[in-house]
Amino acid sequence: MTSPRTTNLSLVDTDPAELAVDAIVIGVHSQPGEQGATSGLAGTLLLASGAESIAAAFDGKLTETLALLGATGGPGEVIKLATLGTVTAPLVAAVGLGPEPSGAAPAPETLRRAAGSAIRALAGASKVALALPLPDDSDASAELRAVAEGALLGGYRFAGYKTRPQPTRREPVAEVLVAVPDAGDAGAQAEVVRAQVVADAVRLTRDWVNTAPNELRPPSFADAVADAARAAGLGVEVLDEAALAAGGYGGIVAVGQGSEAPPRLVKLTYTPEGGGNGKRVALVGKGITFDTGGISIKPAQGMWEMKSDMGGAAAVGAAMLAIAALKPTVAVSAYLPMAENMPSGTSYRPGDVITMFNGKRVEVLNTDAEGRMVLGDAIARACADGTDYLFETSTLTGGQVVALGKRVAGVMGTPELCERVQVAGDAVGEPAWPMPLPEDVRKGMESDVADISQVNAGMDRAGHMLQGGVFLREFVTDDVAWAHIDIAGPSYHSGEPTGYWTKGGTGVPVRTLVQLVEDVAANG
């Protein structure tokens, strides 16, 4: 089940006070109260740029009125005010931007979250205009991209499975106008087109992650990705269970053999016109459509969220659709290993020794460490096909959440490429933090009977996130720069909506992957 894009976005350079819309969104900053002020409201709000004509229509009383309604300017806060005819729009929505930045516009991520919060708060409105601060110079592209992405993603809602009408459920905003200095500027128009392409990919990722696991098992997931990829003009190869067994993909076969829904490996290929810049990028994403833990079964509490264990494959597959639309000058191949990790009489077992695609033999100690098994095969296949850079992403370890929380991904691999991932993640609002791959962690994974143990041989969970990275390194050839991005925390949001994140799948790290591919296209 998928949710079509319900929010269309365009640019406008008309005076915001004169726009015929249902609501106009402005930004407000918080600032310290004045010493000795007789009112606790004095000095607590500062209008952001872009709201000048709205403020003038209120005869300078806008900030005072907003403060009376409880506005503080805190990040993401949305306060609504009926305009009573002072401007064309019947409603003003003031979204908090936090303290005013010194000498600069708010950070792009601040604007992205503010736009998302405002559009979500205005659900039920048909047309909304955003008059948020955008610099009138060559640096405006990052801020405009952020506002556009935030608006498109903040309006996301999964279609869901409810059979009865929900009287209190309001439809997402259908149309968003972004106020800019020059709506006809080619660069600004290009940013809107890019934002719509990338946001569509993020929304599709969210849809796939949010789909009930009985409706998205490996064969149907592979079909969905393959159909979308063919429609986008990508090359598609799908290996079924027989082809996987014949091809020596021992890890994917082992994990998938416990389920009646057999495993798949989907390869997608984008070839730039004219051959591109000569560089090759491989993207790999973990596609465990449901993870019970297998024989090493998980606790029941929270297991329902394991429908999101295919978030890496969903992000990679959707990112390829964005890449096909954006047409970067670099060749990109994607590898999506898909399996369902189930306990049954045919499941793989602790103690099994599995021969992987590259010939290495792995001793299985914990069947709940299944992601690295399917990824090892996919990484080895990507290296065998040939690539210069390999970016792999997966909901791999609970250790990532323990170490870095639910917003920051862990990244391991070639140091230079990890730094590149961090820079890209910071640019798009998907932060990642480089982690080491210590030799003592690898030593702890020595097996008495195979080339490597799947986890620490003594079942010591210390450095659990790092164990995953150390294991995956075994399947990367020496000539390939690589980065493993562990998104166990940021790929799924189980709390209340915040910023442009709704509850459920987040779409992380689609925007990082697209940014990295564009970076390689531009800089090699």
From TrEMBL:
Gene3D superfamilies named in the record: Leucine Aminopeptidase, subunit E, domain 1, Zn peptidases
Catalytic residue positions: 298, 372
InterPro entries assigned: Leucine_aapep/pepB (IPR011356), Macro_dom-like (IPR043472), Peptidase_M17_C (IPR000819), Peptidase_M17_leu_NH2_pept (IPR023042), Peptidase_M17_N (IPR008283)
Domain Cytosol aminopeptidase: 366-373
Cofactor(s) the protein needs: Mn(2+)
Cellular localization per UniProt: Cytoplasm
CDD domains per UniProt: Peptidase_M17
Binding sites annotated in the UniProt record for Mn(2+) 1: 291, 368, 370
Domain of life: Bacteria
Enzyme Commission code(s) on record: 3.4.11.1, 3.4.11.10
GO MF: aminopeptidase activity
Note on cofactor: Binds 2 manganese ions per subunit.
Residue numbers binding Mn(2+) 2: 286, 291, 309, 370
Reactions that this protein is recorded to catalyse: Release of an N-terminal amino acid, preferentially leucine, but not glutamic or aspartic acids; Release of an N-terminal amino acid, Xaa-|-Yaa-, in which Xaa is preferably Leu, but may be other amino acids including Pro although not Arg or Lys, and Yaa may be Pro. Amino acid amides and methyl esters are also readily hydrolyzed, but rates on arylamides are exceedingly low
Main location: cytoplasm
Signal peptide: none
Keywords linked to the UniProt accession: Aminopeptidase, Cytoplasm, Hydrolase, Manganese, Metal-binding, Protease
Record-stated family: Belongs to the peptidase M17 family.
NCBIfam families, A to Z: PRK00913.1-2
Functional note: Presumably involved in the processing and regular turnover of intracellular proteins. Catalyzes the removal of unsubstituted N-terminal amino acids from various peptides.
PANTHER family per UniProt: CYTOSOL AMINOPEPTIDASE, LEUCINE AMINOPEPTIDASE-RELATED
HAMAP family associated with the record: Cytosol_peptidase_M17 (MF_00181)
Protein's UniProt name: Probable cytosol aminopeptidase
Organism whose genome encodes this protein: Micromonospora luteifusca
Gene: pepA
